[in-house]
Amino acid sequence: QAKDRGRNRFCFYTADMNVHAVAQLELEASLRRAVEREEFVLHFQPKVDLRTGLVTGAEALIRWPREGRGLESPARFIPLAEKTGLIVPMGAWVIEAACRQLRSWHDAGWSHLRLAVNVSGRQFHSGDLPIVVAQALARHDVPAGALELELTESMLMDDPEQTIAVLTALKRIGVQLSLDDFGTGYSSFAYLSRFPIDTLKIDQSFVRNIVTEPQAAVIAVSIIDLAHRLQLKVVAEGVETEAQLGYLRQHDCDEMQGYYFAKPMPAESFSELMVTAKALAGTGGRQTAAPP
Ligand code: C2E
Ligand code: MG
Ligand code: MG
Ligand code: MG
Hints:
Layout: H1 2-37, E1 41-49, E2 55-66, E3 70-72, H2 74-84, H3 87-107, E4 114-118, H4 121-124, H5 129-139, E5 147-152, H6 153-157, H7 160-173, E6 176-182, H8 189-194, E7 199-202, H9 204-208, H10 214-229, E8 233-237, H11 242-250, E9 255-257, H12 267-282
Parallel strand pairs: 2-4, 4-5, 5-6, 6-7, 7-8, 8-9
Antiparallel strand pairs: 1-2, 1-9, 2-3
Helix pairs in contact: 3-5, 5-7
The chain binds ligand C2E and magnesium ion (MG) (3 copies).
């Protein structure tokens, strides 16, 4: 009897696993189709200069519009894209789309705007990242300094020789390099002095608790200090409250992004934000974007 129950449970469990496996395969198939048909969109979250209050640019964040499911968030499909290698063509599309958008915003008169894109580990080590970047910049006639690549500590720890080669090639092209989610990875100080990084992004887990947890505040302030002593720019991500903003400003953080100022939004909304901010600046209102 116990054996029967065990067998039943075993069958049930297997069936359950099959359902999961089938769902994964279906997801993979539709992700592959989406990559082929370039069915993604970018949303843009403004980055704001903490001294001037001006919008300096944005981070581009990928979204996958799926029939009947709305906008799928990257947390749902980036891991699978990484696992299957689909992240490489997907990431190339992101770079291409970001350069196209930069061209259009620069043409609209906002030539100071910079755009950051996220790069995944597999994309970074794929061998042709510098070529993909250089070609996209050239195709859209975008100045390299307007494009920023957000890298993570873990991808730089993999293969130090290759990492140096890729970073050097990217800096030769002239793009900006930043370290995303700083403080959550290996945080090896050795590579900070060896790798040609321009910016540190304080991870949101520290920013979230910056006014409530002394530990988080100490870490955030130390990252700001470390960045400045190394002549790097420092950006706080995930700023949600005025208190967090005040604390960061008081401690000399350079830029911030977060829901407190704006959530990621479609390109048209970002353009509207730039126009509105310019109008506000003209009337002496709260100035939030630089006039072109
Ligand atoms: P990330 O690069 O660290 O991006 C920041 C994430 O935090 C974004 O989530 C953003 O919407 C969210 N965020 C921004 N401000 C706030 C805030 O004030 N509060 C909270 N709670 N969250 C905030 P999103 O868009 O869901 O992206 C998640 C992650 O997916 C990104 O983390 C990045 O690692 C990855 N990702 C997004 N787009 C791409 C892409 O094009 N390529 C690659 N390889 N990864 C991407
Ligand atoms: Mg990022
Ligand atoms: Mg981040
Ligand atoms: Mg993150």
